[in-house]
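User: Structure please.
Assistant: Input sequence and predicted structure:
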Amino acid sequence: MIRSLIGLFVGLAISLSIVAFAGENPFSVFMILIRSAFGSPYDLGLALFYTTSLIFTGLSVSLAFQAGLFNIGAEGQLTVAALAAAATGVLLPEVPSPWAPLLATTLGISAGALWGFIPGWLKSRRGSHEVIVTMMMNFIAAALASYVVLDLIKNPESQNPESKILGPGYLLKDYDFVQKFFVDSPANLSLILALALSVLIYFFLYKTIWGYELRASGQNEVASEMAGISSKRWKTLAMTIAGALAGFVCVNEILGSSGRYKIGFSPEYGFVGIAVALLARSHPLGVIASAFLFGALQKGASDLDIETATITKDFARIIQAILIFSVAGATLIDFSWIRQKCFFWKKKGVTDANFE
């Protein structure tokens, strides 16, 4: 944990140093990012809205990492999940609340799980590389969404590429207490769901025999098979669960916010989720803090474009990349001399284990 924090602070320092080379004041840019995320309840709510979806996709990628898989298909999985949830709300508008959001959520995460099961099954049974398969399935998901939204459930009253509005019973706003704290922002009840899922996945991975088997199959397939753990089964299940986790984005985006499917609604949540998982080192609870950092950067990117002369919103991607490299690099540095000579570590009883 301490090692990751060191890498995080070093990455921030390097990022702000680059700002100086661009002719901007690093302190001013840093304050813009801070104000962007915490300047008002609306700003914080929008940052938490981005954070919620990134928690879902970060958990999706992290769980696949734990099983020794690289899920680059979270973008496609959340796309088909959002499409299924939106189609349910459009085609079955009369379903009453609270059954309507439960139905849409169930069908949405089931679609995401199916989109994760396919590459998982191909990996375990046919030896297909999950990166190639999930990457291709991202394009298939995007094409499928375009066809369904524009040809089958398109909103005839709008010039935008979007679906019809869902039935009123599908929206969470009638009993969403989270929105009361962030008035006019898209933050919604799914934030609580994301936090609960992070805790649930943590207990699953580290407190249950099933989680142990999943992690063991990812760390050493041969040893796992010799111990009676089916690595093929767990790889398939891991990708299926990962797809379902990415599919929960439909609750945040469709049921909790827009109430319709919009083509291009995702600012690459699935791909940024990879960065979230890497920064959190695939720990489910670390994903929460990592997702908030990237959510705040996502929110601050537009403000950088407006309030600075040379720094554009694309600079947020540079910061993200530097943070990942810094945290990854920190894992390769030997900090033993600090633990041996620094009185602070000895006094606090910091060990090799919790230093990591």
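The two ends are 5 Å apart (CA to CA).
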